[in-house]
Amino acid sequence: MVKRVGDKVGNSADTRELSHHESHVLALIHKWQPATAYLVRKTLPKSIASSFSDSPGSVYPVIDRLKSRGFVTVRSLQGGKKNAELLSCTQAGVEHLKAWIRTSRQEEALPEDPWRTRSLFSRILDPEDRKAWLLDLRAVAEEQRSSIIERTEFADELSEIDALEHALLTTEARIVWVDRLLARMVHAAAKTLPDDD
């Protein structure tokens, strides 16, 4: 069953659905609350869950929208930097997060993958370039795999372990896929070689 995220709660007349990025920022605020916007921004690139930008121009407008929608409350940070604020999730924010987590969408079953997209057009490369590209992909995936395994050794939250397991299995599947493409290249090359007389 597909559930939709409805966020018509909050203080704003804006009833559009929060994006995945906005919901992720809200989840980070909830996890670290009370948190400064700076902490949320610096935590974002360390998340195994996404590759969203942590630039001020990306994160701070999202936080402003979450505040205006009534999903986040603000209080001034006493004795801290000028204009520093502590952010916390409202009950409406918590309800949105629960709905966001429970949401299942068909389009998320096979998310966009730049490697898969490039593979559709990779026959434009000559065989040696295509092989070099595939070997580069494999090296990147192996490096990512090692990084995930190392991070798993230090994970102390079950939810982080769950996310790392997904990342590891996805990365290992990419390695298997690249190996299959390389094997097909070898097989195709063997079929085109002239027979020895």
TrEMBL record:
It comes from Qipengyuania spongiae. This is PadR family transcriptional regulator. InterPro entries: Tscrpt_reg_PadR_N, WH-like_DNA-bd_sf, WH_DNA-bd_sf. Residues 25-98 form the Transcription regulator PadR N-terminal domain. It holds the Pfam family PadR. The lineage of its organism: Bacteria, Pseudomonadati, Pseudomonadota, Alphaproteobacteria, Sphingomonadales.
